[in-house]
């Protein structure tokens, strides 16, 4: 078996380089390592760049919701508290999720960048990958692989009141506390 490649970076073609740079630096708590000649490279970890932007010298058409292509990028956190802390930090900057989703396998917050691309911030709901796979092969996931919406603010309040993360990271909690939220699939496909 050959060596396994590691994800290096994603590059967005944009007509809003500065807006995209600033938004992703806020989202990921990153910084630009280089900008010039219609290019910008951003990092937030040990890699020299993870996100880049390319602004061609021609007008860009907005992305149509029905266009084929990548739907979203996703970034994972070590635990629920770290995800909720980032949510609060972004909310303080006026950046709020388009839709929070309790997938069952992950607890996720979907944001839209200035160009309309979705970005998922998530935490795994299972410690072991085999347990997550078993969940995905189960009946609950098969009946609804997208999941249900939830209130991040309510989740924070309950977490602060001592509710264990493991209890909050379930569809049961989301359905019990916020049963009347809209179907998240309508947001993800618009």
UniProtKB/TrEMBL annotation:
Belongs to the extradiol ring-cleavage dioxygenase family. PROSITE patterns: EXTRADIOL_DIOXYGENAS, VOC. Keywords: Aromatic hydrocarbons catabolism, Dioxygenase, Iron, Metal-binding, Oxidoreductase. This is VOC family protein. The keyword Phosphoprotein does not apply. Transmembrane segments: none annotated. The keyword Iron applies.
């Amino acid at each position: 078996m050959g060596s396994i490649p590691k994800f290096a970076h994603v590059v967005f073609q944009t007509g809003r380089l500065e807006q995209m740079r600033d938004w992703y630096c806020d989202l990921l708590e990153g910084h630009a390592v280089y900008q010039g000649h219609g290019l910008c490279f951003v990092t937030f970890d040990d890699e020299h760049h993870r996100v880049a932007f390319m602004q061609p010298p021609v007008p860009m058409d907005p992305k149509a919701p029905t266009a084929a292509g990548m739907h979203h990028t996703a970034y994972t956190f070590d635990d629920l508290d770290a995800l909720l802390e980032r949510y609060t930090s972004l909310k303080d900057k006026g950046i709020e999720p388009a839709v929070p989703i309790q997938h069952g396998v992950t607890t996720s917050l979907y944001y839209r960048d200035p160009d309309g691309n979705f970005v998922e911030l998530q935490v795994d709901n299972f410690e072991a990958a085999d347990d997550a796979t078993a969940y995905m092969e189960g009946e609950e996931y098969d009946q609804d692989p997208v999941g249900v919406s939830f209130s991040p603010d309510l989740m924070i309040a309950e977490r602060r009141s001592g509710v264990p993360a493991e209890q909050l990271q379930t569809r049961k909690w989301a359905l019990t506390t916020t049963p009347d939220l809209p179907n998240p699939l309508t947001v993800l496909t618009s």
